[in-house]
Design brief:
By secondary structure, the protein is an alpha/beta fold. It has one domain: Rossmann fold (3-Layer(aba) Sandwich), CATH 3.40.50. Helices cover 54% and strands 17% of the residues. The protein has seven helices and six strands. The protein has a six-stranded mixed beta sheet. Helix 3 runs antiparallel to helix 4 (57-70). The longest helix is centred in the middle third of the chain and has 14 residues, at 57-70.
Length: 130
Amino acid sequence: MRVVFDTNIFISAFIFPNSQAEKAIIKIINDIDLLIISKEIIDEILSVLALKFSREKEEISRLAVYISDIARIVNPQISINVLSDEPDNRIIECAISGNADFIITGDKKMLALKNYGQIKIISLKNYLEL
């Protein structure tokens, strides 16, 4: 399956060892699913880690390389405005550009959509049960 993780999944995985979110990352590392990501999503992850969690530049740089290594990076050529939170729209744009099957998120507004076109929007718990 081709999946896009919302930023909250990455943040949880990197901040809380042995979390459910980390299990999702392990599915990617073990080549169970293909992670699709965009530069905009990577930038948001790194920004949140730097600003809200005071991570150091060296750690953030290593993390950027790590994410790039485990994911396929796409460059969305479309712009959508479905949700009021702009970063959430970037997640959907990435999923469309990467022909993703699923968006994995903990965001209630995004989960309320249930899908965008053929892309299913599911919770982390549901993803881990697949």
